[in-house]
Specification:
- By secondary structure, the chain is mainly β.
- Helix content is 0%, strand content 48%.
- Strand 7 and strand 8 form a beta hairpin.
Length: 123
């Protein structure tokens, strides 16, 4: 299984970025997919996740600003980030898992496969 993130970068506060995650080696449409972020010295945080049938769950800090989506035909996961804030600065990771949609879907422990991450810096 390989997950490759792209689309990170540096942006001014109020700007937008779209992250992409290209997946291979797994039956993509049957997996929960998620975006997580981590700042050095802090725990990894579940930002947004999407089930195989399109249900979504967002962290309160990004609701109304971030949108997660998936294209199963392209085996690709996206995260559209609008109105970015300095506190969104982090390494962003894509993850895939056989999650149970029962309250633990944004927990990193629910995900078995991880990408290498892409840095997002908001100033």
């Amino acid at each position: 299984v390989q997950l490759v993130e792209s689309g990170g970068g540096s942006v001014q506060a109020g700007g937008s970025l779209r992250l992409s995650c290209a997946a291979s080696g797994l039956d993509f449409s049957n997996y929960c997919m998620g975006w997580f972020r981590q700042v050095p010295g802090q725990e990894r945080e579940g930002v947004a996740v999407i089930s195989g049938d399109g249900r979504t769950n967002y962290a309160d800090s990004v609701k109304g600003r971030f949108t997660i989506s998936r294209d199963d035909a392209k085996n690709t996961l996206y995260l559209l980030m609008n109105n970015l804030k300095p506190e969104d600065t982090a390494m962003y990771y894509c993850a895939a898992g056989n999650c149970l949609w029962e309250g633990s879907e944004r927990s990193p422990e629910s995900y078995q496969y991880w990408g290498q991450g892409t840095q997002v810096t908001v100033s």
